[in-house]
Amino acid sequence: MIVLYKYLLFDLDETLFDYQAAETAALNRVLQEYDVVEYAEQFKKTYHLINNKLWSDYEKGLVQKDEILATRFSKTVAQLKLSLDGSKMTVDYQLFLGQGYQLIDGAIKCLEKLRQQGFKLYALTNGVERTQLSRLSGSSLDRYFEKVYISEQTGSQKPFLAFYDFVFNNSPEIEKEFALMIGDSLTSDIQGAINATIDSCWYNPHQIENNSGIQATYIIGNYDELINIVSK
After folding, report:
1. How far apart are CA 18 and CA 150, in angstroms?
2. Which residues are bridge partners to 180 per DSSP?
3. How many CB atoms lie within 10 A of CB 98?
4. Where are the transmembrane segments (predicted)?
5. What's the rounded Cα separation, in Å, for the pair 181 and 59?
6. pTM for the complete prediction?
Protein backbone atom coordinates (compact mmCIF):
# COMPACT_ATOMS: atom_id res chain seq x y z
CA MET A 1 0.00 0.00 0.00
CA ILE A 2 1.30 3.46 -0.93
CA VAL A 3 1.46 5.68 2.16
CA LEU A 4 0.13 9.10 1.19
CA TYR A 5 -0.89 10.27 4.66
CA LYS A 6 -0.35 9.33 8.28
CA TYR A 7 -1.85 12.34 10.07
CA LEU A 8 -5.43 13.45 9.47
CA LEU A 9 -6.43 16.89 10.75
CA PHE A 10 -10.19 17.22 11.10
CA ASP A 11 -12.33 20.30 11.38
CA LEU A 12 -15.31 19.69 13.67
CA ASP A 13 -18.43 21.73 12.84
CA GLU A 14 -20.18 20.57 9.65
CA THR A 15 -17.33 18.11 9.06
CA LEU A 16 -18.05 15.70 11.92
CA PHE A 17 -20.57 17.56 14.08
CA ASP A 18 -23.98 18.39 12.61
CA TYR A 19 -23.64 22.00 13.69
CA GLN A 20 -26.82 23.18 12.01
CA ALA A 21 -28.88 20.69 14.01
CA ALA A 22 -27.14 21.64 17.26
CA GLU A 23 -27.48 25.36 16.57
CA THR A 24 -31.18 25.06 15.70
CA ALA A 25 -31.90 23.10 18.88
CA ALA A 26 -29.99 25.61 21.03
CA LEU A 27 -31.71 28.61 19.43
CA ASN A 28 -35.13 27.02 19.88
CA ARG A 29 -34.42 26.47 23.57
CA VAL A 30 -33.32 30.09 23.97
CA LEU A 31 -36.46 31.36 22.23
CA GLN A 32 -38.63 29.20 24.47
CA GLU A 33 -36.70 30.26 27.57
CA TYR A 34 -37.27 33.95 26.79
CA ASP A 35 -40.84 33.49 25.56
CA VAL A 36 -40.22 34.88 22.08
CA VAL A 37 -41.30 31.85 20.05
CA GLU A 38 -43.75 34.03 18.11
CA TYR A 39 -40.75 35.92 16.68
CA ALA A 40 -38.79 32.72 16.01
CA GLU A 41 -38.32 32.94 12.24
CA GLN A 42 -37.51 36.64 12.23
CA PHE A 43 -35.18 36.23 15.20
CA LYS A 44 -33.29 33.32 13.59
CA LYS A 45 -32.94 35.10 10.26
CA THR A 46 -31.57 38.24 11.89
CA TYR A 47 -29.31 36.29 14.21
CA HIS A 48 -27.83 34.22 11.38
CA LEU A 49 -27.04 37.29 9.29
CA ILE A 50 -25.26 38.95 12.22
CA ASN A 51 -23.53 35.78 13.41
CA ASN A 52 -22.27 34.73 9.97
CA LYS A 53 -20.84 38.20 9.33
CA LEU A 54 -19.03 38.17 12.68
CA TRP A 55 -17.51 34.72 12.09
CA SER A 56 -16.44 35.74 8.59
CA ASP A 57 -14.73 38.80 10.06
CA TYR A 58 -13.10 36.54 12.66
CA GLU A 59 -11.56 34.36 9.94
CA LYS A 60 -10.16 37.55 8.39
CA GLY A 61 -8.71 38.68 11.71
CA LEU A 62 -11.00 41.72 11.89
CA VAL A 63 -12.69 40.85 15.20
CA GLN A 64 -11.87 38.77 18.25
CA LYS A 65 -13.95 35.79 19.31
CA ASP A 66 -14.92 37.57 22.53
CA GLU A 67 -16.62 40.24 20.42
CA ILE A 68 -18.68 37.61 18.60
CA LEU A 69 -19.90 36.10 21.85
CA ALA A 70 -20.52 39.46 23.49
CA THR A 71 -22.47 41.10 20.66
CA ARG A 72 -24.31 38.66 18.40
CA PHE A 73 -27.41 38.31 20.60
CA SER A 74 -27.30 41.92 21.77
CA LYS A 75 -27.18 43.11 18.15
CA THR A 76 -30.05 40.79 17.21
CA VAL A 77 -32.21 41.98 20.09
CA ALA A 78 -31.43 45.63 19.31
CA GLN A 79 -32.21 45.26 15.61
CA LEU A 80 -35.55 43.62 16.39
CA LYS A 81 -36.28 46.19 19.13
CA LEU A 82 -36.93 43.51 21.74
CA SER A 83 -36.64 44.22 25.46
CA LEU A 84 -34.38 41.26 26.24
CA ASP A 85 -30.98 40.79 27.87
CA GLY A 86 -28.70 39.81 24.98
CA SER A 87 -25.79 39.09 27.31
CA LYS A 88 -27.77 36.58 29.34
CA MET A 89 -29.13 35.00 26.16
CA THR A 90 -25.53 34.43 25.06
CA VAL A 91 -24.70 32.56 28.26
CA ASP A 92 -27.78 30.36 27.97
CA TYR A 93 -27.21 29.71 24.27
CA GLN A 94 -23.62 28.54 24.83
CA LEU A 95 -24.83 26.22 27.58
CA PHE A 96 -27.48 24.71 25.30
CA LEU A 97 -25.09 24.50 22.34
CA GLY A 98 -22.59 22.66 24.52
CA GLN A 99 -25.22 19.93 24.83
CA GLY A 100 -25.49 19.63 21.05
CA TYR A 101 -23.95 16.22 20.49
CA GLN A 102 -25.48 15.64 17.06
CA LEU A 103 -23.08 14.06 14.57
CA ILE A 104 -23.20 13.75 10.81
CA ASP A 105 -24.28 10.22 9.89
CA GLY A 106 -21.28 7.94 9.57
CA ALA A 107 -18.82 10.15 11.48
CA ILE A 108 -18.07 7.63 14.22
CA LYS A 109 -17.79 4.75 11.77
CA CYS A 110 -15.35 6.76 9.66
CA LEU A 111 -13.11 7.70 12.60
CA GLU A 112 -13.13 4.14 13.91
CA LYS A 113 -12.07 2.76 10.55
CA LEU A 114 -9.30 5.33 10.16
CA ARG A 115 -7.98 4.61 13.64
CA GLN A 116 -8.05 0.87 12.94
CA GLN A 117 -5.98 1.49 9.82
CA GLY A 118 -3.34 3.23 11.91
CA PHE A 119 -3.95 6.88 11.11
CA LYS A 120 -3.30 9.50 13.79
CA LEU A 121 -6.27 11.86 14.08
CA TYR A 122 -6.30 15.45 15.32
CA ALA A 123 -9.15 17.94 15.75
CA LEU A 124 -8.65 21.58 14.71
CA THR A 125 -11.48 24.01 15.43
CA ASN A 126 -12.24 27.72 15.65
CA GLY A 127 -15.20 27.03 17.94
CA VAL A 128 -15.69 28.18 21.51
CA GLU A 129 -13.43 26.16 23.81
CA ARG A 130 -15.86 25.27 26.59
CA THR A 131 -18.62 24.46 24.10
CA GLN A 132 -16.44 22.30 21.86
CA LEU A 133 -14.93 20.34 24.75
CA SER A 134 -18.42 19.64 26.11
CA ARG A 135 -19.64 18.44 22.71
CA LEU A 136 -16.55 16.31 22.12
CA SER A 137 -17.00 14.61 25.48
CA GLY A 138 -20.77 14.20 25.20
CA SER A 139 -20.56 12.71 21.72
CA SER A 140 -17.54 10.51 22.59
CA LEU A 141 -15.62 11.98 19.64
CA ASP A 142 -12.79 12.99 21.95
CA ARG A 143 -11.55 9.41 22.30
CA TYR A 144 -10.57 9.27 18.63
CA PHE A 145 -8.15 12.21 18.63
CA GLU A 146 -4.53 12.35 19.66
CA LYS A 147 -4.99 16.04 20.45
CA VAL A 148 -7.64 18.72 20.07
CA TYR A 149 -6.58 22.23 19.03
CA ILE A 150 -9.01 25.09 19.64
CA SER A 151 -8.30 28.63 18.48
CA GLU A 152 -8.69 30.04 22.01
CA GLN A 153 -5.74 27.87 23.06
CA THR A 154 -3.53 28.57 20.07
CA GLY A 155 -3.63 32.37 20.11
CA SER A 156 -4.76 32.42 16.48
CA GLN A 157 -7.41 30.86 14.25
CA LYS A 158 -7.78 29.07 10.97
CA PRO A 159 -6.86 30.03 8.26
CA PHE A 160 -3.86 31.90 9.71
CA LEU A 161 -0.47 30.24 9.57
CA ALA A 162 0.10 31.02 13.25
CA PHE A 163 -2.68 28.56 14.15
CA TYR A 164 -1.02 25.75 12.22
CA ASP A 165 2.44 26.67 13.49
CA PHE A 166 1.08 26.20 17.01
CA VAL A 167 -0.32 22.79 16.06
CA PHE A 168 2.92 21.57 14.49
CA ASN A 169 5.09 22.97 17.29
CA ASN A 170 2.97 21.24 19.93
CA SER A 171 2.61 18.01 17.96
CA PRO A 172 6.13 17.64 16.54
CA GLU A 173 5.38 14.04 15.58
CA ILE A 174 3.26 15.32 12.67
CA GLU A 175 5.23 15.22 9.42
CA LYS A 176 3.72 17.90 7.21
CA GLU A 177 4.33 15.98 4.00
CA PHE A 178 2.14 13.18 5.38
CA ALA A 179 -0.58 15.45 6.83
CA LEU A 180 -4.04 16.07 5.36
CA MET A 181 -6.49 18.76 6.50
CA ILE A 182 -10.17 17.78 6.17
CA GLY A 183 -12.93 20.35 6.50
CA ASP A 184 -16.07 21.90 5.06
CA SER A 185 -14.90 25.52 4.91
CA LEU A 186 -12.93 26.76 1.92
CA THR A 187 -12.01 30.03 3.62
CA SER A 188 -11.02 28.48 6.94
CA ASP A 189 -9.92 24.85 6.50
CA ILE A 190 -8.74 24.73 2.90
CA GLN A 191 -7.14 28.17 2.85
CA GLY A 192 -5.54 27.32 6.17
CA ALA A 193 -4.03 24.16 4.72
CA ILE A 194 -2.71 26.15 1.76
CA ASN A 195 -1.14 28.67 4.14
CA ALA A 196 0.44 25.81 6.10
CA THR A 197 1.64 24.09 2.90
CA ILE A 198 -0.15 20.82 3.59
CA ASP A 199 -2.64 18.89 1.46
CA SER A 200 -6.34 19.48 1.95
CA CYS A 201 -9.65 17.71 1.47
CA TRP A 202 -12.81 19.76 1.06
CA TYR A 203 -15.82 17.98 2.56
CA ASN A 204 -18.64 19.14 0.30
CA PRO A 205 -21.64 16.81 0.73
CA HIS A 206 -24.10 19.37 -0.66
CA GLN A 207 -22.06 19.90 -3.85
CA ILE A 208 -21.71 23.64 -3.31
CA GLU A 209 -20.20 25.42 -6.29
CA ASN A 210 -16.74 26.80 -5.57
CA ASN A 211 -16.41 30.36 -6.84
CA SER A 212 -13.79 31.36 -4.29
CA GLY A 213 -10.64 30.59 -6.23
CA ILE A 214 -9.48 28.46 -3.28
CA GLN A 215 -8.54 25.00 -4.53
CA ALA A 216 -8.38 21.88 -2.36
CA THR A 217 -6.17 18.89 -3.13
CA TYR A 218 -9.27 16.68 -3.00
CA ILE A 219 -13.03 17.16 -2.92
CA ILE A 220 -15.30 14.58 -1.29
CA GLY A 221 -19.03 14.24 -0.78
CA ASN A 222 -18.98 11.52 1.87
CA TYR A 223 -16.70 9.75 4.32
CA ASP A 224 -16.24 6.67 2.13
CA GLU A 225 -14.52 8.85 -0.46
CA LEU A 226 -12.13 10.10 2.22
CA ILE A 227 -11.28 6.55 3.27
CA ASN A 228 -10.64 5.61 -0.36
CA ILE A 229 -8.24 8.53 -0.79
CA VAL A 230 -6.12 7.91 2.29
CA SER A 231 -6.17 4.11 2.03
CA LYS A 232 -4.54 3.87 -1.42
Report:
1. 18
2. 8, 199
3. 19
4. none
5. 17
6. 0.94
Could you give the CA distance from residue 203 to residue 201 in angstroms, rounded to a whole number? 6
Q: Which residues contact 151 (CB under 8 A, 6 or more apart)?
A: 65, 125, 126, 127, 157, 158, 163
- For residue 74, which of 100, 54, 97, 56 has the smallest C-alpha distance? 54
What span, in angstroms and rounded, lies between the C-alpha atoms of 209 and 216?
13
What pLDDT, on the 0 to 100 scale, is given for residue 1? 59
**Residue ranges, CATH 1.10.150.240, the chain:** 20-97
Contact 102, 108 (CB under 8 A): no
Fold of 7-17+104-230: Rossmann fold (3.40.50)
Q: Return residue ranges of the chain for CATH 3.40.50.1000.
A: 7-17+104-230
- pLDDT of 178 reads 97
Tens digit of each residue's pLDDT (9 = 90 or more) over 190-213: 999 999 999 999 999 999 999 999
How many Å apart are CA 118 and CA 207, to the nearest integer?
Answer: 30
Q: How many CA atoms lie within 13 A of 190 on its CB side?
A: 19
Cβ atoms of residues 93 and 33 within 8 Å: no
Tell me which residues of the chain have a pLDDT lower than 70: 1
Q: Which CATH superfamily is domain 20-97 in?
A: Putative phosphatase; domain 2 (1.10.150.240)
